[in-house]
Amino acid sequence: MRITKNVRIQFSFGEDDEDTEDTYDIDLQISWEASNPTETEIKTSLDEVVRKWIRENVSYTWEEVEVEEDDP
User: 4 with 31: CB under 8 angstroms?
Assistant: First the structure.
């Protein structure tokens, strides 16, 4: 059985109590194969599919930086 769901992935950056300027939404239609799934299995497999999509499609770079301390 092919399942197709419309999902919104919300990427949030920063602390939970900060403003939402660092939040980005991506709307996708995701499809995957499942055999006779229950509603719980659909939610679990959808979570797995979203995680897989993020691993395969989201990239980042980083570098270590030195923090300069202010003189008292």
Answer: yes
Dihedral in degrees, nearest 10, Cα atoms 38, 56, 29, 43: 20
Dist CA 27 CA 50 (whole Å): 11
Sequence-separated (6 or more) residues with CB below 8 Å from residue 20 = 12
Q: Which residue has the tokens 């990239």?
A: 59
- In the chain, which residues have pLDDT < 50? none
Q: What local confidence, expressed as pLDDT, does residue 42 receive?
A: 86
H helix intervals, the chain = 39-57
Distance of CA 13 to the CA centre of its chain: 11
